[in-house]
Amino acid sequence: MTHFELDIGQHSETGKKKENQDSFGVLIPDEPEVTYKGIVAVIADGVSGCEDGKIASESCVKSLLHDYYATPDSWSVKRSVEKVLLATNRWLYGQGSQPGSLASTLSALIVKSSTAHIFHIGDSRIYRFRGGRLEQLTQDHSWGSGENQYLSRAMGIDLRLDIDYRSLAVEPEDIFIFTTDGVHEYVSAEAIVKAIEDHEDLNQAAFELVRQASNADSPDNLTCQIIYFRQLPVPSEQEVLLKLSELPFPPLLEAGMKLDGYRIVREISASKRVQIYLAVDEESGDKVVLKTPSPNFEDDPIYIDLFSHEEWVGSRIQSPHVMRVFKPKRRRSCLYLVSEYIEGETLRQWMDEHPQRDFQQARGFVDQIAKGLMAFHRLEMLHQDLKPENIMIDQDGIVKLIDFGSVKIAGLEEISSPLERIQLLGTKHYAAPEYFLGYAGSSRSDQFSLAVIAYELLTGHLPYGENYGEGNITRIKYHSARRWNPDIPVWMDRALEKALSIDPDKRYDTLSEFLHDLEKPNPGFLQKDRQPLLERDPLTFWQVVAFGSLALNLILILWLAISSQT
After folding, report:
1. Confidence category of residue 165, pLDDT binned at 50, 70, 90
2. What is the pLDDT of residues 473-521, one digit of tens each?
3. What class, spelled out in words, does domain 5-236 have in CATH?
4. Long-range contacts made by residues 94-98, C-beta under 8 angstroms, separation at least 24?
5. Between 108 and which of 42, 169, 312, 463 could a Cys-Cys bridge form, CB atoms 3.0 to 4.6 Å apart?
6. Superfamily of structural domain 246-340
């Protein structure tokens, strides 16, 4: 079974209030959104006494149900929801006649694949009923009791927003119950369990809980929403294999051959994993690149899955510094990728042809590479295989990142799959230390790779030598860039050292900070260095020692000569 099956029950009443300021809803989108984003269920309770609680609660529910699906597919659920809620909170805070006059609680559940993501602020609640046991999944943000109960947190009362977040596994037959305080303050946990067990129709169960709260003299609006997950979208291995094998592998191509309207001009390169061809789109006349999978992996579903992700990544990133990947205009007869043709050379080729490089040139390249990386990071993707061979320079000097085979996508990582997800470490000399230590990467891992390239552009050497990645990686020492190029300013060397820290927490928070310190002196780097000269610049240290020893010997010889004469 590869889709959601669920039942929904809902009931809401105004109760003893003049207006029902509760809002609630569930949205089950079509494919591909239901796979990439999941199902959203939310409940909100406009704060009593505020200017218009109904507008506040409706705004919270509508913005989450609709704006969440407008966020990039590559984003994680947590990042997507936080962006939406922060924007909604700013709107509520600014729209009222005074700050906090439009306020609401909010409790949301997003089920993506087989994981529940819970977001909560205020005193509405979400419970889970599993195996006869009821568990409250949210914590009330309130203090006091009865008529003297007050919210300590809510949407719209402050520009700062502190949202409770947790994630947990969902199982078939899990039931989630959403209530506003007008219900759960006046019915017991036992009553909630009994209502669910006694009513197969969840609408009737929700109605029963609202009725009991009303009979218990609840003075508030009364809302209950229940969701029963009968089945979750966890595909079987056979289903995944069938989907991946829909398109056969293409044959090896030669000049003059035609494939789906593309005429092969020549082979650009070939490896054990892929073949890359220059081709012409006969419909438009444009030159393009066709990338085809190697026949060696025709029975490898993990390889096919990674190959397909390259098109998914490339078609979503829009940046002049990232190679464009196109979705084929015509129906494909086999598996291949179509991308822009970049006339130029790799950064490795350029470095080999230009052994003498000035600072401005090197910084210009680093700046363009960083802009390409930022396009990945904005979509919550990590490149993970940044190296000179994966960077192209076109004839106009524009730098573009290529090869997305190792890209990690936060949003796709949240989707359950029977296939084993392998973590590609990239290339040894450019991969961040945390990969060798078995830890997950972050944007700072890409920063490390960029810093290695910057160091190599400025010095012609690698910051940790040719043996980097071998032995105990936590004990290696940074080689000052000034050791190879004394013209490099101390502050620039320090910027490189910081971005190349073995501990990712000691690197820059953002790429823009690193770029700034490569361009302009950081005052903190101009202070007297407390690090011993031996560690900071071993070559200079031993030159000083040798010079001092020579001077001392000369003085000693002169003293002996004078002493012998006297």
Report:
1. very high
2. 888 899 999 999 999 999 999 999 999 999 999 999 999 999 999 999 9
3. alpha beta
4. 96/50, 96/51, 96/52, 96/156, 97/51
5. 42
6. Phosphorylase Kinase; domain 1 (3.30.200.20)
